[in-house]
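User: For my dataset I need records formatted as: sequence, then structure tokens, nothing else. Please produce one.
Assistant:
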Amino acid sequence: MNRTRLSEVFALPGLGDEDLYAVSGFVHPVRGPVRCPAAPLVAAVPTEDGLPLAVRDLGPVPVGSAGPGRSGVLVSTTYLDGDGDATGIAVVGGSCRTGAAQALVRSWSAALRTRRAMVARPPRPCPDSPYAVVELPVPRDGSAPPAHPGAATPCPAPALAGAAVRRYLDEGDAVLLVGPGRSRPWAPDGRVLELARVEDVERLVLPVGVRPAFVVRPCAVVDDVTPLLTALRARFPELRGQHPDQWCHRASATRWAHRAVAAASDLTLLLGEARVDAATLPTGARVRRVRGLGDLLPAELAAAATVGLIPAAPAVGTANGDDMDTALLDAVLQVLTGLGPLGIVEHRVWTEVVPLPTAPSAPVCADRAPRHRD
């Protein structure tokens, strides 16, 4: 890219003195058609008057001669990709906005580089997950919660947890709901003790002779649950509880995906309403919230060889069957293709419970092998 990079100014007639707009495409007099995918990004950042720019295509006619014109200019930086096609950044400025056009192109041209975009793609969160954009209420009447719209496999954890709660209560145990969160399997009020932190375990007092039994809060992050179970077992050796086959691991997979992407990236962008537990991200990770293209800064992108992207999950209650809200993600990826050669990598994490392996049959001893009779 750098070997073919050209920064040029072309005279452009027919402009108003105050015209200033980003260019989505033009025809270079030598390089031919030039794509400018970053034009919406250039236009989105407010100029000195606080307003975003318009985006226009200059059409099929090649731009004129190099150098400033009386009416205005096209300021551009172009480069050739691996296939020989031209890509660039271009802004048109009238006679009174020439300096602004040059400043915009200079600013965004500094962000041109070969880079990688790493997209976190965890499984679609459950309605009760801390990573869901909107949580659905969990019924208190013993019925199963509503299935997640668009999910390929509705999460069975709430129904399984509710059944475990009722079974342990029927057997006279003190039921402990373990893990942070707001979801609560159905149970008579006051008959389930909620433990969200290790400190809750340390303060727990049970009546003499009452046996404890734990149930994992549906769709809680399992990494947050296991320290509580360790503390419970240390205090109550007779503890029993829900089988690990019934735990939901989707929220843990989401945390692992976020952590891995942030660790591998020079800059991680949280897109829209993406929910991330910042305390669990790697120390020193550069993370910033982006709700629109106008939030992207050329200086930050210039320093980032790898940009991590964490999209928001689709809002619970929508019929979107995808695992993430792709509108802003697609827009960001599109403009990044205009800031240099871009490789896109999706980081997927999937965890599932599998059946126990079948025990191999015992080998037949040689001296006990059946003898062949003629």
